[in-house]
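@channel sequence for tomorrow's demo:
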Amino acid sequence: LAALASIDDPPDLMESAIHRLAASVPNPQDGLNLLKTYGLRPDLLAVTQVWKQADASFLYACKGAPETVASLCGLPPDTLKKSVEEMAQHGIRVLAVAQAIIPDDALPETIKGLPFHYIGLIGLADPLRESVIDAVASCRAAGIKVVMITGDYPTTAHAIATQAGLSDGAVLTGDDLSRLSDDELQTRIPHIAVFARIMPEQKLRIVQAFKQNDEIVAMTGDGVNDAPALQAAHIGIAMGQRGTDVAREAASIVLLEDDFDSIVQTIRLGRRIYNNLQKVMRYIIAVHIPIAGMALLPIALGHPLVLLPLHIALLEMLIDPVCALVFEAEDEGKDLMRHKPRDPQAPLIPAGLMLLSFLQGLLALVGVAGIYLWFHTQGLPEDQVRALSFTALVVSNIALIFTNRTLHPSIWDTLRRKNPLMIWVALATTAIMTALLSIPPLEKLLKFGAVHWDDIALTFAVCLAIFLAAEGMKTIRHAILHSTRFTSRKDGGILKP
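C-alpha coordinates (generated this afternoon):
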Protein backbone atom coordinates (compact mmCIF):
# COMPACT_ATOMS: atom_id res chain seq x y z
CA LEU A 1 0.00 0.00 0.00
CA ALA A 2 2.85 2.41 0.73
CA ALA A 3 4.26 1.65 -2.71
CA LEU A 4 0.85 2.32 -4.26
CA ALA A 5 0.89 5.67 -2.46
CA SER A 6 4.29 6.50 -4.03
CA ILE A 7 5.05 7.65 -7.56
CA ASP A 8 6.93 5.40 -9.97
CA ASP A 9 10.68 5.97 -10.35
CA PRO A 10 10.72 8.53 -7.53
CA PRO A 11 13.62 10.94 -6.88
CA ASP A 12 12.92 10.70 -3.15
CA LEU A 13 15.14 8.12 -1.45
CA MET A 14 12.44 7.10 1.02
CA GLU A 15 9.95 6.30 -1.72
CA SER A 16 12.66 4.37 -3.59
CA ALA A 17 13.24 2.27 -0.47
CA ILE A 18 9.51 1.58 -0.21
CA HIS A 19 9.38 0.46 -3.85
CA ARG A 20 12.38 -1.86 -3.37
CA LEU A 21 10.77 -3.48 -0.35
CA ALA A 22 7.40 -3.82 -2.11
CA ALA A 23 9.09 -5.49 -5.09
CA SER A 24 10.51 -8.19 -2.81
CA VAL A 25 7.13 -9.48 -1.64
CA PRO A 26 4.13 -10.92 -3.53
CA ASN A 27 1.76 -8.19 -4.69
CA PRO A 28 -1.86 -9.32 -5.09
CA GLN A 29 -2.79 -5.89 -6.47
CA ASP A 30 -0.99 -6.03 -9.82
CA GLY A 31 -2.89 -4.70 -12.81
CA LEU A 32 -4.24 -1.58 -11.10
CA ASN A 33 -4.68 1.62 -13.06
CA LEU A 34 -3.68 4.95 -11.54
CA LEU A 35 -6.44 7.56 -11.75
CA LYS A 36 -5.43 10.48 -9.54
CA THR A 37 -2.84 11.69 -7.03
CA TYR A 38 -3.62 13.87 -4.01
CA GLY A 39 -0.34 15.56 -3.18
CA LEU A 40 1.10 16.85 0.07
CA ARG A 41 -0.56 20.00 1.40
CA PRO A 42 0.25 22.25 4.35
CA ASP A 43 -2.97 21.22 6.06
CA LEU A 44 -2.71 17.54 5.06
CA LEU A 45 0.70 15.90 5.47
CA ALA A 46 -0.11 12.81 3.44
CA VAL A 47 0.01 11.62 -0.16
CA THR A 48 -2.85 9.56 -1.60
CA GLN A 49 -3.07 7.82 -4.96
CA VAL A 50 -6.32 6.46 -6.38
CA TRP A 51 -6.21 3.14 -8.26
CA LYS A 52 -8.98 1.41 -10.22
CA GLN A 53 -9.21 -2.26 -9.26
CA ALA A 54 -10.29 -5.22 -11.34
CA ASP A 55 -13.78 -5.21 -9.76
CA ALA A 56 -14.22 -1.57 -10.82
CA SER A 57 -13.91 -0.28 -7.25
CA PHE A 58 -11.43 2.41 -6.35
CA LEU A 59 -8.53 1.92 -3.96
CA TYR A 60 -7.23 5.01 -2.13
CA ALA A 61 -3.68 4.24 -0.95
CA CYS A 62 -2.47 6.79 1.59
CA LYS A 63 0.85 7.32 3.36
CA GLY A 64 1.99 10.26 5.43
CA ALA A 65 2.61 11.71 8.85
CA PRO A 66 1.21 9.35 11.53
CA GLU A 67 -0.85 12.08 13.18
CA THR A 68 -2.38 13.01 9.81
CA VAL A 69 -3.20 9.43 8.85
CA ALA A 70 -4.66 8.76 12.31
CA SER A 71 -6.94 11.76 11.84
CA LEU A 72 -8.04 10.54 8.40
CA CYS A 73 -8.87 7.16 9.92
CA GLY A 74 -10.88 8.72 12.72
CA LEU A 75 -8.53 7.42 15.42
CA PRO A 76 -7.96 9.28 18.68
CA PRO A 77 -4.96 11.64 18.37
CA ASP A 78 -2.72 9.61 20.72
CA THR A 79 -3.52 6.18 19.28
CA LEU A 80 -0.25 5.85 17.37
CA LYS A 81 1.86 8.14 19.53
CA LYS A 82 3.47 5.42 21.69
CA SER A 83 4.53 3.29 18.71
CA VAL A 84 5.75 6.31 16.77
CA GLU A 85 7.74 7.62 19.74
CA GLU A 86 9.44 4.26 20.26
CA MET A 87 10.61 4.19 16.65
CA ALA A 88 11.44 7.89 16.48
CA GLN A 89 13.70 7.74 19.53
CA HIS A 90 16.09 5.64 17.46
CA GLY A 91 16.16 8.22 14.69
CA ILE A 92 13.77 6.26 12.48
CA ARG A 93 11.54 8.21 10.14
CA VAL A 94 7.97 6.98 10.55
CA LEU A 95 5.16 6.97 8.00
CA ALA A 96 1.66 5.65 8.56
CA VAL A 97 -0.25 3.80 5.86
CA ALA A 98 -4.00 3.62 5.35
CA GLN A 99 -6.44 2.61 2.65
CA ALA A 100 -10.01 3.31 1.61
CA ILE A 101 -12.06 1.34 -0.92
CA ILE A 102 -14.81 3.33 -2.61
CA PRO A 103 -17.33 1.70 -4.95
CA ASP A 104 -17.85 4.78 -7.15
CA ASP A 105 -15.53 7.04 -9.17
CA ALA A 106 -16.53 10.40 -7.72
CA LEU A 107 -12.90 11.39 -7.00
CA PRO A 108 -13.66 14.14 -4.49
CA GLU A 109 -11.67 17.38 -4.22
CA THR A 110 -10.27 16.32 -0.83
CA ILE A 111 -9.70 12.95 0.79
CA LYS A 112 -10.93 14.21 4.13
CA GLY A 113 -14.06 12.36 5.20
CA LEU A 114 -13.33 9.21 3.21
CA PRO A 115 -13.62 5.90 5.13
CA PHE A 116 -9.89 5.25 5.57
CA HIS A 117 -8.77 2.15 7.42
CA TYR A 118 -5.49 2.23 9.30
CA ILE A 119 -3.00 -0.43 8.09
CA GLY A 120 0.29 0.14 9.92
CA LEU A 121 3.56 2.03 10.26
CA ILE A 122 6.66 2.00 8.09
CA GLY A 123 10.02 2.94 9.60
CA LEU A 124 12.89 4.19 7.46
CA ALA A 125 16.41 4.35 8.77
CA ASP A 126 18.58 7.05 7.20
CA PRO A 127 21.90 6.74 9.07
CA LEU A 128 24.15 9.75 9.24
CA ARG A 129 27.32 9.62 7.24
CA GLU A 130 30.39 9.37 9.43
CA SER A 131 31.69 12.63 7.98
CA VAL A 132 28.65 14.59 9.21
CA ILE A 133 29.55 14.36 12.91
CA ASP A 134 33.08 15.67 12.33
CA ALA A 135 31.78 18.32 9.93
CA VAL A 136 29.29 19.64 12.49
CA ALA A 137 32.02 19.69 15.14
CA SER A 138 34.25 21.68 12.78
CA CYS A 139 31.46 24.19 12.24
CA ARG A 140 30.94 24.62 15.98
CA ALA A 141 34.66 25.18 16.52
CA ALA A 142 34.65 27.75 13.71
CA GLY A 143 31.79 29.71 15.27
CA ILE A 144 29.24 28.53 12.71
CA LYS A 145 25.84 27.51 14.07
CA VAL A 146 24.21 24.57 12.32
CA VAL A 147 20.45 24.03 12.60
CA MET A 148 18.30 21.29 11.13
CA ILE A 149 15.14 22.10 9.17
CA THR A 150 13.14 18.99 8.37
CA GLY A 151 9.68 17.68 7.77
CA ASP A 152 10.38 14.75 10.09
CA TYR A 153 8.51 13.92 13.28
CA PRO A 154 9.97 16.02 16.16
CA THR A 155 11.30 13.04 18.13
CA THR A 156 12.95 11.60 15.02
CA ALA A 157 14.49 14.96 14.17
CA HIS A 158 15.79 15.40 17.71
CA ALA A 159 17.32 11.91 17.74
CA ILE A 160 19.12 12.49 14.44
CA ALA A 161 20.24 15.95 15.56
CA THR A 162 21.66 14.47 18.76
CA GLN A 163 23.63 11.91 16.74
CA ALA A 164 24.99 14.73 14.58
CA GLY A 165 25.99 16.86 17.58
CA LEU A 166 23.17 19.41 17.33
CA SER A 167 21.66 18.74 20.74
CA ASP A 168 22.34 22.23 22.13
CA GLY A 169 18.97 23.83 21.58
CA ALA A 170 15.25 23.29 21.56
CA VAL A 171 12.95 21.77 18.93
CA LEU A 172 10.40 24.01 17.25
CA THR A 173 7.63 22.44 15.18
CA GLY A 174 5.90 23.89 12.17
CA ASP A 175 2.65 24.22 14.11
CA ASP A 176 4.40 26.18 16.86
CA LEU A 177 6.17 28.34 14.29
CA SER A 178 2.90 29.21 12.57
CA ARG A 179 1.57 30.63 15.85
CA LEU A 180 4.56 32.94 16.32
CA SER A 181 4.73 36.47 15.00
CA ASP A 182 7.85 37.54 13.12
CA ASP A 183 9.15 39.39 16.18
CA GLU A 184 8.52 36.39 18.44
CA LEU A 185 10.26 34.06 15.98
CA GLN A 186 13.20 36.42 15.78
CA THR A 187 13.51 36.29 19.57
CA ARG A 188 13.23 32.50 19.85
CA ILE A 189 15.30 31.46 16.87
CA PRO A 190 18.76 31.81 18.50
CA HIS A 191 17.78 29.08 20.96
CA ILE A 192 16.48 26.58 18.40
CA ALA A 193 18.59 23.68 17.10
CA VAL A 194 15.93 21.69 15.25
CA PHE A 195 12.92 22.78 13.21
CA ALA A 196 10.64 19.76 12.74
CA ARG A 197 7.45 19.17 10.75
CA ILE A 198 8.34 22.27 8.77
CA MET A 199 6.44 23.08 5.60
CA PRO A 200 8.47 24.35 2.61
CA GLU A 201 7.06 27.87 2.79
CA GLN A 202 8.07 28.11 6.46
CA LYS A 203 11.72 27.73 5.51
CA LEU A 204 11.61 31.24 4.05
CA ARG A 205 10.39 32.65 7.38
CA ILE A 206 13.22 30.89 9.19
CA VAL A 207 15.84 32.29 6.82
CA GLN A 208 14.41 35.79 7.12
CA ALA A 209 14.33 35.56 10.93
CA PHE A 210 18.01 34.64 11.03
CA LYS A 211 18.83 37.52 8.68
CA GLN A 212 16.88 39.94 10.88
CA ASN A 213 19.18 38.88 13.73
CA ASP A 214 22.14 40.03 11.61
CA GLU A 215 23.30 36.47 10.94
CA ILE A 216 25.02 35.46 7.71
CA VAL A 217 22.77 32.66 6.50
CA ALA A 218 23.66 29.71 4.29
CA MET A 219 20.70 27.53 3.34
CA THR A 220 20.78 24.09 1.76
CA GLY A 221 17.97 22.56 -0.26
CA ASP A 222 17.11 20.39 -3.22
CA GLY A 223 13.41 20.81 -3.97
CA VAL A 224 11.32 23.26 -5.97
CA ASN A 225 9.75 24.53 -2.76
CA ASP A 226 13.20 25.28 -1.33
CA ALA A 227 13.90 27.87 -4.04
CA PRO A 228 12.48 30.93 -2.18
CA ALA A 229 14.57 30.18 0.91
CA LEU A 230 17.67 29.46 -1.20
CA GLN A 231 17.17 32.78 -2.98
CA ALA A 232 16.60 34.70 0.25
CA ALA A 233 19.65 33.32 2.05
CA HIS A 234 22.97 35.10 1.73
CA ILE A 235 24.38 31.83 0.37
CA GLY A 236 22.01 29.35 -1.22
CA ILE A 237 23.47 25.85 -1.55
CA ALA A 238 21.71 23.37 -3.84
CA MET A 239 22.29 19.64 -4.02
CA GLY A 240 23.86 18.76 -7.36
CA GLN A 241 22.93 15.09 -7.52
CA ARG A 242 19.31 15.03 -6.40
CA GLY A 243 18.55 18.74 -6.55
CA THR A 244 15.93 20.08 -8.93
CA ASP A 245 16.78 22.54 -11.70
CA VAL A 246 14.77 25.24 -9.92
CA ALA A 247 16.81 24.80 -6.73
CA ARG A 248 20.07 24.96 -8.66
CA GLU A 249 19.05 28.15 -10.44
CA ALA A 250 18.05 29.80 -7.16
CA ALA A 251 21.24 28.80 -5.34
CA SER A 252 24.61 30.54 -5.22
CA ILE A 253 26.53 27.26 -5.00
CA VAL A 254 25.73 23.81 -6.39
CA LEU A 255 27.41 20.87 -4.67
CA LEU A 256 28.80 18.14 -6.89
CA GLU A 257 28.46 15.72 -3.98
CA ASP A 258 25.36 15.86 -1.79
CA ASP A 259 27.37 15.71 1.39
CA PHE A 260 27.32 18.19 4.28
CA ASP A 261 31.06 17.76 4.64
CA SER A 262 31.46 19.33 1.19
CA ILE A 263 30.09 22.58 2.61
CA VAL A 264 32.58 22.50 5.48
CA GLN A 265 35.45 21.84 3.08
CA THR A 266 34.29 24.81 1.00
CA ILE A 267 34.35 27.02 4.09
CA ARG A 268 37.82 25.72 4.89
CA LEU A 269 39.01 26.48 1.35
CA GLY A 270 37.48 29.96 1.44
CA ARG A 271 39.22 30.76 4.72
CA ARG A 272 42.52 29.48 3.35
CA ILE A 273 42.23 31.63 0.23
CA TYR A 274 41.31 34.69 2.32
CA ASN A 275 44.21 34.13 4.71
CA ASN A 276 46.66 33.70 1.84
CA LEU A 277 45.39 36.92 0.24
CA GLN A 278 46.09 38.68 3.52
CA LYS A 279 49.60 37.23 3.56
CA VAL A 280 50.21 38.45 0.02
CA MET A 281 49.02 41.96 0.87
CA ARG A 282 51.10 42.12 4.05
CA TYR A 283 54.17 40.98 2.14
CA ILE A 284 53.63 43.43 -0.74
CA ILE A 285 53.32 46.35 1.68
CA ALA A 286 56.40 45.34 3.63
CA VAL A 287 58.70 44.50 0.71
CA HIS A 288 58.19 47.72 -1.23
CA ILE A 289 59.22 49.97 1.65
CA PRO A 290 62.93 49.02 1.55
CA ILE A 291 62.92 49.09 -2.26
CA ALA A 292 61.44 52.59 -2.33
CA GLY A 293 63.66 53.70 0.53
CA MET A 294 66.86 52.50 -1.12
CA ALA A 295 65.86 54.20 -4.35
CA LEU A 296 65.47 57.54 -2.54
CA LEU A 297 68.17 57.36 0.15
CA PRO A 298 71.22 57.88 -2.12
CA ILE A 299 69.48 60.82 -3.78
CA ALA A 300 68.75 62.37 -0.40
CA LEU A 301 72.41 61.93 0.62
CA GLY A 302 73.80 63.12 -2.70
CA HIS A 303 75.33 59.73 -3.46
CA PRO A 304 75.25 57.84 -6.77
CA LEU A 305 72.19 55.68 -7.38
CA VAL A 306 72.26 52.24 -5.81
CA LEU A 307 69.24 50.76 -7.59
CA LEU A 308 69.16 51.09 -11.34
CA PRO A 309 66.05 50.24 -13.42
CA LEU A 310 67.47 46.78 -14.16
CA HIS A 311 67.85 46.06 -10.44
CA ILE A 312 64.26 47.05 -9.69
CA ALA A 313 63.06 44.89 -12.60
CA LEU A 314 64.94 41.91 -11.15
CA LEU A 315 63.43 42.51 -7.73
CA GLU A 316 59.93 42.64 -9.21
CA MET A 317 60.63 39.41 -11.08
CA LEU A 318 61.20 37.81 -7.68
CA ILE A 319 58.23 39.46 -5.96
CA ASP A 320 55.58 38.53 -8.54
CA PRO A 321 56.27 34.76 -8.59
CA VAL A 322 56.41 34.76 -4.81
CA CYS A 323 52.95 36.35 -4.58
CA ALA A 324 51.47 34.12 -7.25
CA LEU A 325 53.04 30.82 -6.24
CA VAL A 326 54.46 30.69 -2.75
CA PHE A 327 51.64 32.31 -0.78
CA GLU A 328 48.98 30.64 -2.93
CA ALA A 329 50.51 27.26 -2.04
CA GLU A 330 50.53 27.96 1.69
CA ASP A 331 48.66 25.32 3.69
CA GLU A 332 45.67 26.14 5.86
CA GLY A 333 47.38 25.84 9.24
CA LYS A 334 46.32 23.72 12.17
CA ASP A 335 43.84 26.18 13.69
CA LEU A 336 42.10 27.55 10.59
CA MET A 337 38.71 26.09 11.54
CA ARG A 338 39.02 27.27 15.14
CA HIS A 339 38.83 30.95 14.23
CA LYS A 340 35.54 32.76 14.63
CA PRO A 341 33.90 34.13 11.47
CA ARG A 342 35.21 37.49 10.34
CA ASP A 343 33.11 40.60 10.00
CA PRO A 344 32.04 40.77 6.32
CA GLN A 345 32.46 44.55 6.47
CA ALA A 346 36.03 44.32 7.73
CA PRO A 347 38.79 45.44 5.33
CA LEU A 348 41.09 42.87 3.78
CA ILE A 349 43.98 44.29 5.78
CA PRO A 350 42.91 45.67 9.20
CA ALA A 351 44.73 48.69 10.53
CA GLY A 352 46.72 46.59 13.00
CA LEU A 353 48.09 44.29 10.30
CA MET A 354 48.73 47.27 8.04
CA LEU A 355 50.85 48.81 10.80
CA LEU A 356 52.68 45.51 11.36
CA SER A 357 53.52 45.27 7.65
CA PHE A 358 54.70 48.87 7.59
CA LEU A 359 56.94 48.29 10.61
CA GLN A 360 58.36 45.13 9.05
CA GLY A 361 59.15 47.04 5.86
CA LEU A 362 60.67 49.89 7.87
CA LEU A 363 62.78 47.38 9.78
CA ALA A 364 64.03 45.89 6.50
CA LEU A 365 64.80 49.39 5.21
CA VAL A 366 66.82 50.19 8.33
CA GLY A 367 68.82 46.98 7.94
CA VAL A 368 69.50 47.40 4.22
CA ALA A 369 70.26 51.12 4.64
CA GLY A 370 72.64 50.22 7.46
CA ILE A 371 74.48 47.82 5.15
CA TYR A 372 74.67 50.50 2.47
CA LEU A 373 75.91 53.25 4.81
CA TRP A 374 78.38 50.97 6.60
CA PHE A 375 80.14 49.84 3.44
CA HIS A 376 79.96 53.33 1.98
CA THR A 377 81.73 54.78 5.01
CA GLN A 378 84.32 51.99 4.79
CA GLY A 379 85.40 53.40 1.46
CA LEU A 380 84.31 50.48 -0.70
CA PRO A 381 83.95 51.25 -4.40
CA GLU A 382 80.50 52.23 -5.64
CA ASP A 383 79.98 49.00 -7.60
CA GLN A 384 80.78 46.83 -4.54
CA VAL A 385 78.43 48.85 -2.33
CA ARG A 386 75.72 48.42 -4.97
CA ALA A 387 76.29 44.64 -5.08
CA LEU A 388 76.14 44.27 -1.31
CA SER A 389 73.09 46.56 -0.98
CA PHE A 390 71.25 44.61 -3.69
CA THR A 391 72.14 41.35 -1.97
CA ALA A 392 70.78 42.72 1.31
CA LEU A 393 67.54 43.69 -0.42
CA VAL A 394 67.10 40.22 -1.92
CA VAL A 395 67.89 38.37 1.30
CA SER A 396 65.67 40.66 3.38
CA ASN A 397 62.96 39.96 0.80
CA ILE A 398 63.27 36.23 1.58
CA ALA A 399 63.16 37.05 5.29
CA LEU A 400 59.91 38.99 4.79
CA ILE A 401 58.45 36.05 2.86
CA PHE A 402 59.19 33.67 5.72
CA THR A 403 57.88 35.94 8.46
CA ASN A 404 54.63 36.72 6.61
CA ARG A 405 53.74 33.07 6.09
CA THR A 406 52.05 33.07 9.50
CA LEU A 407 51.11 35.43 12.31
CA HIS A 408 51.93 32.85 14.98
CA PRO A 409 54.52 34.23 17.39
CA SER A 410 56.76 31.21 16.96
CA ILE A 411 59.91 31.09 14.85
CA TRP A 412 59.72 27.30 14.86
CA ASP A 413 56.17 27.40 13.49
CA THR A 414 57.26 29.89 10.82
CA LEU A 415 60.16 27.74 9.64
CA ARG A 416 58.54 24.30 9.79
CA ARG A 417 55.40 25.10 7.75
CA LYS A 418 55.44 22.83 4.72
CA ASN A 419 55.54 24.58 1.38
CA PRO A 420 57.85 23.01 -1.23
CA LEU A 421 57.56 26.10 -3.44
CA MET A 422 59.01 28.23 -0.66
CA ILE A 423 62.09 26.02 -0.58
CA TRP A 424 62.43 26.11 -4.35
CA VAL A 425 62.14 29.91 -4.41
CA ALA A 426 64.80 30.23 -1.71
CA LEU A 427 67.15 27.85 -3.53
CA ALA A 428 66.55 29.51 -6.88
CA THR A 429 67.17 32.94 -5.39
CA THR A 430 70.41 31.73 -3.81
CA ALA A 431 71.58 30.26 -7.11
CA ILE A 432 70.72 33.41 -9.05
CA MET A 433 72.46 35.69 -6.54
CA THR A 434 75.52 33.45 -6.56
CA ALA A 435 75.63 33.72 -10.36
CA LEU A 436 75.14 37.50 -10.32
CA LEU A 437 77.97 37.97 -7.85
CA SER A 438 80.46 35.54 -9.39
CA ILE A 439 80.04 35.58 -13.19
CA PRO A 440 81.91 38.60 -14.66
CA PRO A 441 79.54 39.33 -17.61
CA LEU A 442 76.58 39.42 -15.23
CA GLU A 443 78.50 41.60 -12.79
CA LYS A 444 79.28 44.02 -15.61
CA LEU A 445 75.66 44.04 -16.80
CA LEU A 446 74.38 44.93 -13.33
CA LYS A 447 77.34 47.23 -12.56
CA PHE A 448 78.39 45.10 -9.62
CA GLY A 449 81.88 44.90 -8.24
CA ALA A 450 83.64 41.83 -6.91
CA VAL A 451 82.73 41.34 -3.25
CA HIS A 452 84.46 39.51 -0.44
CA TRP A 453 82.66 36.64 1.21
CA ASP A 454 83.20 38.10 4.68
CA ASP A 455 81.19 41.14 3.52
CA ILE A 456 78.52 38.75 2.22
CA ALA A 457 78.48 37.00 5.60
CA LEU A 458 77.94 40.33 7.35
CA THR A 459 75.08 41.11 4.97
CA PHE A 460 73.43 37.75 5.72
CA ALA A 461 73.87 38.32 9.45
CA VAL A 462 72.06 41.65 9.23
CA CYS A 463 69.24 40.04 7.24
CA LEU A 464 68.97 37.29 9.86
CA ALA A 465 68.63 40.01 12.47
CA ILE A 466 65.85 41.55 10.35
CA PHE A 467 64.03 38.21 10.33
CA LEU A 468 64.40 37.72 14.10
CA ALA A 469 63.23 41.27 14.79
CA ALA A 470 60.22 40.82 12.50
CA GLU A 471 59.34 37.64 14.40
CA GLY A 472 59.70 39.62 17.61
CA MET A 473 57.15 42.13 16.31
CA LYS A 474 54.67 39.30 15.87
CA THR A 475 55.32 38.17 19.44
CA ILE A 476 54.71 41.71 20.74
CA ARG A 477 51.50 41.95 18.68
CA HIS A 478 50.29 38.62 20.06
CA ALA A 479 51.03 39.72 23.62
CA ILE A 480 49.13 42.99 23.16
CA LEU A 481 46.10 41.23 21.67
CA HIS A 482 45.94 38.74 24.55
CA SER A 483 46.92 41.03 27.41
CA THR A 484 43.38 42.14 28.34
CA ARG A 485 41.48 39.54 30.36
CA PHE A 486 38.19 39.67 32.19
CA THR A 487 36.08 37.26 34.20
CA SER A 488 32.60 36.48 32.91
CA ARG A 489 30.10 35.33 35.54
CA LYS A 490 27.79 34.18 32.79
CA ASP A 491 30.41 31.67 31.66
CA GLY A 492 31.12 30.37 35.11
CA GLY A 493 34.13 32.55 35.82
CA ILE A 494 36.17 31.36 32.83
CA LEU A 495 38.87 33.79 31.78
CA LYS A 496 38.20 34.98 28.25
CA PRO A 497 40.21 37.26 25.96
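heads up for whoever presents: The longest strand covers residues 92-102.
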